[in-house]
Amino acid sequence: MATGSMVLGLVVAPMGWVLLLAATVTPRWREFSRRPGFPWDVSFSDGLWESCVEVISVPGRACQAIPQETAISWPMQMLRALTVISVLTGVLSYSLGHVGVRWWTDSPNPKLTGTAGLLLVLSGAMYLCATSYMAYKVLENMANPQTPAGDKFWLGTCLYLGWSGGVAEILAGICLAVNFQRKEESSAGNVAAPYELPRRLGRATILSPFAELRLTPATQHRPPASAKGGPRADPMSHHTRPGLCPAGL
């Protein structure tokens, strides 16, 4: 039967995964509102795949792919790889967790659920690394006095989504990983004892293995031994019956 930690892990895991997916595809890793030289109602935001411009007074936004030199840089390639692998690992671990719990039976597989938990922890850790690196670069750019005022972006909404989703994935993974220590249910109650002692009126009666003697063919016709000190049988008694004495005696 599934334990409480298994159920909790499988409930929290998809919630964190949705947050990670939303953070990956949404272009709000860094934002800039009221940028110098632009109207006050225009906001800018950048993501891993595209950059967007949004006018508050006009519904909708205009987006385009990020510049080529930024897309091919190793930090952006690393961020993309970490986020995509994290999302795919989350899907794999969530599916593996359901297989390990085995809802259709009463005996879950602790090894599969534990492995799914470790993969979830890995998924959350990778995404936390990606969001933390982006936050570090944004804060470093803001603190640099040589950075123009129009290029000092702020932390975007997706960073908070990524942090929340990463923590949720790690917590869900821990709930599943603790099942590595879960012992299999003992079946000693279903195993019969090597022998049972018969009971009569509440008192145990121990039966000796020699209580029932089985005669072999060699001992079936053996005459019984005489008791110690008792009269011995006369070997000639069968020749001296009454009335059959020899003549002349």
UniProtKB/TrEMBL annotation:
InterPro entries: Claudin, PMP22/EMP/MP20/Claudin. GO terms for molecular function: structural molecule activity. It is a multi-pass membrane protein. It comes from Gopherus agassizii. The lineage of its organism: Eukaryota, Metazoa, Chordata, Craniata, Vertebrata. Pfam families: PMP22_Claudin (PF00822). Belongs to the claudin family. Residues 218-249 are annotated as: Disordered. Gene3D superfamilies: 1.20.140.150. The chain crosses the membrane at residues 6-25, 78-96, 116-136. One of its GO terms (cellular component) is plasma membrane. This is Claudin. It is found in: Cell junction, Tight junction; Cell membrane. Its main location: other. Keywords: Cell junction, Cell membrane, Membrane, Tight junction, Transmembrane, Transmembrane helix.
